[in-house]
Amino acid sequence: MKYLKMLFKFSLYFAVAFLFHFSGVNSFITYIEPRHPLRGSRAKPGTPWPLPQRWIQSQKVLSLNSSNFRISSNLKDCDVLTAAIQRYEKFIFADVNGTQNPLLPTLLQVNVFVNETSCAYPQQGDDEYYLLEISSVKQGVIEARTVWGALRALETLSQLVYQNEKTRAYLVNETRIDDWPAYSYRGILIDTARHFIPVSTLKQNLDAMAFNKMNVFHWHLVDDQSFPFESKTFPNLSKYGAYSEKQVYSQTDVKSIIEYARLRGIRVLPEIDSPGHTKSFGKAYPELLTPCYGYNSSTPYVPKYPHFSEAETLNPIEENVYTFMSNLFQELKILFPEKYVHLGMDEVYYECWESNPNIQFFMKVNKMQNTSQLEQYYVGRMLQIMKNIGYKYMIWQDPIDNGVQAADDTIVQIWKDSRLDSKLGEWRESAEIIAKKGYRMVVSACWYLNYINYPYPGKDWENFYECNPRSFNGSNEEKQLVLGGEACLWTEFVDSTNLISRLWPRASAVAERLWTNPQTANLDDARFRLDQQRCRLFRRGIPAAPILNGFCEDYAI
Ligand SMILES: *[C@@H]1O[C@H](CO)[C@@H](O)[C@H](O)[C@H]1NC(C)=O
Ligand SMILES: *[C@@H]1O[C@H](CO)[C@@H](O)[C@H](O)[C@H]1NC(C)=O
Ligand SMILES: *[C@@H]1O[C@H](CO)[C@@H](O)[C@H](O)[C@H]1NC(C)=O
Ligand SMILES: *[C@@H]1O[C@H](CO)[C@@H](O)[C@H](O)[C@H]1NC(C)=O
Ligand SMILES: *[C@@H]1O[C@H](CO)[C@@H](O)[C@H](O)[C@H]1NC(C)=O
Ligand SMILES: *[C@@H]1O[C@H](CO)[C@@H](O)[C@H](O)[C@H]1NC(C)=O
Ligand SMILES: *[C@@H]1O[C@H](CO)[C@@H](O)[C@H](O)[C@H]1NC(C)=O
Ligand SMILES: *[C@@H]1O[C@H](CO)[C@@H](O)[C@H](O)[C@H]1NC(C)=O
């Protein structure tokens, strides 16, 4: 009986699948169970993801010929644009057997006009607006204020082009798109300390980010577990702190990642987390860490599990710590072309500090009543060091929760949420409080992509999609303090074997929330469009995971 039921289920599946195979869409998804048919409208071929802000569609179809189609631009000396045009011409004509339909008008060229000639490094708040028009009369026109806007336009152009399933003719409809991001900060965090992530995987992820118009790679470089970043000032940090000498990002690697990201309009924001999450520093520099006194004040370096290990947090009463950090961040400032640095500052567990008699003495002398004031002392000095170096900074929300005063232009990243830990409040409550203090924010609390929903993994992307980072209680002005959001991928259970498929296409849901910010989230339609995007990523070499049953037509096997 069970066998028959299954047979029925599968034959129905194949019947439905066959029906749609030749329907002109290049992806197809179906129900999890036949009893729950999918609602919503199937995505038209060539539907861009994330959806543009304004998209005037037309039924008029043009065809393209791979041997005479050209994209040209008014910026002749901008390597970013030149490289992008080459990339996108390849994506548009990826099918070696693609053809032209000679009966349709031909789209011969797209001309790109960029107003600002600056072509250096993307930075927070860059203008990414673009206008894209395709018509048989005027041909293709892209207008953007910055080269970064032009990159987003080229991505859209490459997604608008589709193929006739039978003749394989390259097609594009006449259209006019006015587009800009709802949020200026659209990031992905990757933790390279719990597991080392190879450079090639990081670059593949940058590709996927560009295909989804995301613009910040937040690189959580080091943590308790390992120190894979090569510092020239302190080479022993990675020599002793990395998992192995192979699992180190040399400065050449770092530069090549920054360059790869720049060519795709993506910022690389480095994070060196402190004063917690620093155990790996101690492999080479044990004197930087606070000795913990497990059970009595006469014996240092005694763990008290699970409260603390023998030493794991920087020692805020050691002057050497501040000199060391100053030198390390000066080196970072030269290597990374970013105005911002991420200082971490999350999850300082006070018990080790409290166990240490020297710290107790220091606190007494300095009239500190609790360890929260000691944390403030550390944070205050670090922020002053950053100011001296000329860095703007981003921090996790913890010091602000603890009453620390940071510089006005600090960006505070919201991560705490009751769904991560029942002891934490709902993220909207802390966002409301931090907004009242006037800080700009980046929200991550609803976007921890390392977690998989049980028992409904298929709901994951829907929850990500529905999270509105401005949905806390506050004035309009306070909501505007949210610059965007960031999908976080902590790598306790992730390495190069599953990083890309864990992130994609689930991070695409975050990308559309942050770029388009649809006012009414129609999940039923979005499901089909997301699947089309998943197949698009797949065709471009990104092993993005499926979101439902079904298949991408080119990859039916
Ligand atoms: C493109 O034109 C075709 C043919 O008129 C139409 O069926 C299709 O819906 C159009 N696609 C888009 C994305 O507007
Ligand atoms: C292109 O067409 C040739 C000849 O029909 C066929 O052998 C080949 O597999 C096709 N290539 C692709 C990528 O479809
Ligand atoms: C595509 O353009 C090339 C070069 O101009 C031309 O030889 C070829 O016939 C065109 N293909 C079609 C299908 O029109
Ligand atoms: C570029 O500059 C021209 C002339 O000032 C202006 O008309 C046009 O709107 C600008 N383009 C964009 C995309 O802002
Ligand atoms: C690195 O470690 C080695 C071995 O402990 C030591 O001899 C050397 O002085 C250290 N280098 C620096 C720059 O601290
Ligand atoms: C303090 O703790 C250490 C390690 O647990 C132990 O060896 C030592 O005897 C203790 N000393 C006193 C005075 O209790
Ligand atoms: C720490 O002490 C200060 C000064 O008495 C007080 O304002 C603050 O609320 C205390 N913080 C905590 C977390 O107890
Ligand atoms: C917003 O305020 C209302 C009214 O005080 C309250 O019921 C609601 O729970 C608050 N929402 C959030 C997300 O804090």
Automatic annotation (TrEMBL):
One of its GO terms (biological process) is glycosaminoglycan metabolic process. It is an enzyme of class 3 (hydrolase). InterPro entries: Beta_hexosaminidase_sua/sub, GH, Glyco_hydro_20_cat, Hex-like_dom2, HEX_eukaryotic_N. Residues 48-160 form the Beta-hexosaminidase eukaryotic type N-terminal domain. GO terms for molecular function: beta-N-acetylhexosaminidase activity. Its EC number is 3.2.1.52. It catalyses: Hydrolysis of terminal non-reducing N-acetyl-D-hexosamine residues in N-acetyl-beta-D-hexosaminides. The active site is at E347. GO terms for cellular component: lysosome; membrane. The keyword Nucleotide-binding does not apply. Belongs to the glycosyl hydrolase 20 family. PANTHER family: BETA-HEXOSAMINIDASE, BETA-HEXOSAMINIDASE A. This is Beta-hexosaminidase. It comes from Dinothrombium tinctorium. The lineage of its organism: Eukaryota, Metazoa, Ecdysozoa, Arthropoda, Chelicerata.
